[in-house]
Amino acid sequence: MFDHKTLETLNAQAIAAANVRIEHGGSTLAVTPASCTLTNLEPYQFLRDRFRGNLNTHSLKAFATYVERHIGGEGNIGAAGFVDQDAMRATVIFNLGNSGYAGHGDDRATLTLKPTAAYKALLEVVGRSMSQQQLAEFLEDWAPHITASAGDEHLHIVAAINAVRRMQIKATSELNSEVGDLSNRRSAMEDIEARSLETLPTAFAFITKPYDPLSVAGVTLRLSVITGEKAPVLKLRWVGQEAQQEAFAEEFQQVLESEVGGLLPLTIGTYTQGN
Predict the structure, then answer these.
(1) Of 127, 109, 135, 124, residue with least CA distance to 256
(2) pLDDT tens by residue, 144-189
(3) How does 178-206 read in b/e, with b if 16+ C-beta sit within 10 Å?
(4) Can you give the pLDDT at residue 160?
(5) Which of 245, 252, 231, 232 lies closest to 126 in space, CA to CA?
(6) Quick check: 69 and 56 in contact, CB under 8 A?
(7) Contact in structure between 217 and 248 (CB atoms under 8 Å)
(8) Could you report the per-residue pLDDT of 224-238, keeping only the tens digit for each?
């Protein structure tokens, strides 16, 4: 009579001797003794069962070249691209397949556009409260990209920077007093105004490529001066920001269509692989 442990040992030896292998979905599986589980032998083979991986790049040229070279490879079935306009990102899935012949969806290439240095600097200051010094330094750092104006008058950028630096707050007060037989009323009005010893700019045009593959764009910035503190607080407001950023996203889609649109279908949106 064999005990339980001996039976387990004999069973394991029989399974090992049988050397049962199964070809399943492009992978080679083997039945192993431990609890009769399936073990993927791919890590121990000289070659992988199929190609899969993830390319991530900021370069449109590198992305397009990789997609063109890779899309015709064996096992790449039902390739499709998805464009996330909010993130300025595009993802190509080479083995997505279709509803009747679903692929693993684990062979991908992703392009994420990287903002230019000038555009990144612009995004960091838009809507932010700044001192005179901070705004003047921003204008000095990116002066080649900026034009200034005061209403319809064009200002030289150096003059605009000097006007920001020499700004001061002027406050005037007026006191009204009224006395009656049964009441008295007193009110104070204060007029606070920010002025500069030179013509103060009211708007700027910031000209740059937002992302390398896109064309040059001009961003209109309105200057707001907040006078509630001892020193003026300055803000730059991007006029029509949402509409212009939507235009950047549409241009991104058009550029992608011209580069890889002939190789595979492109869909606006993001894709998540189901379980």
Answers:
(1) 109
(2) 999 999 988 999 999 999 999 887 655 444 445 454 444 444 444 4
(3) eeeeeeeeeeeeeeeebebebbbbbbbeb
(4) 93
(5) 245
(6) no
(7) yes
(8) 988 777 778 899 999
